[in-house]
Amino acid sequence: MDYSSNSRWALPVILVCFFIVLLSNNVVFASHKVFIHLQSQNAVNVQTVHRTGYHFQPEKHWINDPNAPMYFNGVYHLFYQYKPNGSVWGNIVWAHSVSKDLINWINLEPAIYPSKPFDQFGTWSGSATILPGNKPVILYTGIVDANQTQVQNYAIPANLSDPYLREWIKPDNNPLIVADASINKTKFRDPTTAWMGKDGHWRIVMGSLRKHSRGLAIMYRSKDFMKRVKAKHPLHSTNGTGNWECPDFFPVALKGTNGIDQYGEEYKYVLKNSMDLTRFEYYTLGKYDTKKDRYVPDVGSIDSWKGLRFDYGNFYASKTFYDTSKNRRVIWGWSNESDIFPEDDNAKGWAGIQLIPRKVWLDPSGKQLIQWPVEELETLRTQKVQLSNKKLNNGEKVEVTGITPAQADVEVIFSFASLDKAESFDSSWTDMYAQDVCGLKGADVQGGLGPFGLATLATENLEENSPVFFRVFKAQQNYKVLLCSDAKRSTLKFNETMYKVSFAGFVDVDLADKKLSLRSLIDNSVIESFGAGGKTCITSRVYPTLAINEKAHLFAFNNGTEPITIETLDAWSMGKAKIQY
Question: Does domain 63-373 fall into CATH 2.115.10.20?
Answer without folding.
Answer: yes
